Amino acid sequence: MTNHNSLDPLNNIQKNLCEYGGAFGILLSLTCLIQHFIAAIPNYITYSMIPAYIFILLAFLLLALQKPVSVILLMTGAVLALACNWIILTSHAFSLVVLFLFLYLVIILVALFVEQVPQKLKLKKAALKAERDEWAGKI
Q1: Annotated domain spans of the chain
Q2: Which listed site, 11, 66, 127, 138, has its alpha carbon 20 to 30 Å from 51?
Q3: Is 15 exposed, middle or buried (0-12, 13-18, 19+ CB in 10 A)?
Q4: pTM summary value
Q5: Phi and psi dihedrals of 8, rounded to 5?
């Protein structure tokens, strides 16, 4: 029988970083999406920004759920947020919320790597898979 620590290698700081960081990111990306629906002039360029915000929202949701793939999605989301900032700035507009979203993505990615969360999330996934495989034929 395995103990709880081997199934969940994350400490409380890393769990809080994932949960609260993901929740705040969801709120921030939702704010960008709502602002986009209210203030953006509808055309093909602004329509292309909507999937980017939804993608970033889902990446933060997966981070809050402590999924290992969330780190890769957050990196992609940072590139998408940078593209959204570029689109907004080249159209002679400015959105502080979208800038905050990009900066928050960069900060949360740095914090995740400093705290070594991606490696711990991979360990957690492998431990849960091993536990599931161990109990597969016994129940």
Answers
A1: 11-121
A2: 66
A3: middle
A4: 0.87
A5: -135, 90
Query: Residues 102-129: pLDDT tens digits?
Result: 999 999 999 999 999 888 888 888 888 8
Structure token pair of residue 100: 């905050």
SS (H, E, C) the chain: CCCHHHHCCCCHHHHHHHHHHHHHHHHHHHHHHHHHHHHCCCCHHHHCHHHHHHHHHHHHHHHHCCCCCHHHHHHHHHHHHHHHHHHHHHCCCCCHHHHHHHHHHHHHHHHHHHCCHHHHHHHHHHHHHHHHHHHCCCC
Contacts of 59 (CB under 8 A, 6+ apart): 25, 70, 73, 74, 76, 77
